[in-house]
Amino acid sequence: MTASNVPAWSDRHCLVTGGGRGIGRAVTQALLGAGARVTMLGRQALEAQALAALAAHLDVVQRLHAMAADVVDAQAAAITCQATSVSGGEVM
């Protein structure tokens, strides 16, 4: 990629499911590092809290919204998507 075709992540709000561990956590950290606003969903509240603590340490806490949610439940997923848009703006 050249500098001219790199996305402007600072203009983006990204939703990452499974963001509390593994690949999802790595993606969340990469997006935060690139300047994006991120809503991270994890099934365990402790995972969301741990990532929020890491974000505070990295001084990116204002760009992270960590939530405990299970997107397998359709009703919970709909509520989560609505809350995501309210908290961080439209998801790109």
CATH class: Alpha Beta
CATH superfamily: NAD(P)-binding Rossmann-like Domain
User: Helix coverage percent of residues?
Assistant: 40-55%
**Which parts are unreliable, with pLDDT below 50 for 5 consecutive residues or more?**
none
What order do the strands of the largest sheet run in, or round the barrel if closed?
Answer: 1-2-3
Which percent band covers the strand fraction?
15-25%
Order of helices and strands: EHEHEH
Number of strands: 3
User: What summary fits the major beta sheet?
Assistant: 3 strands, parallel
**Total domain count:** 1
Query: What is the fold-level CATH name, i.e. the topology?
Result: Rossmann fold
Distance between the termini: 20 Å
Give the overall form: globular
Structural class by helix and strand composition: alpha/beta
Radius of gyration over all CA atoms, rounded: 13 Å
Q: Could you say what the CATH architecture is?
A: 3-Layer(aba) Sandwich
Compose a concise summary of this entry.
The chain has a single domain, classed as Rossmann fold (3-Layer(aba) Sandwich). The protein contains three helices and three strands; from the N terminus they run E-H-E-H-E-H.
If you had to describe this structure to a student in words, what would you say it looks like?
By secondary structure, the chain is an alpha/beta fold. The chain contains three helices and three strands. A three-stranded parallel β-sheet has the order 1-2-3, with helices on both faces. The model has no long low-confidence stretch (mean pLDDT 79). The chain has one domain: Rossmann fold (3-Layer(aba) Sandwich).
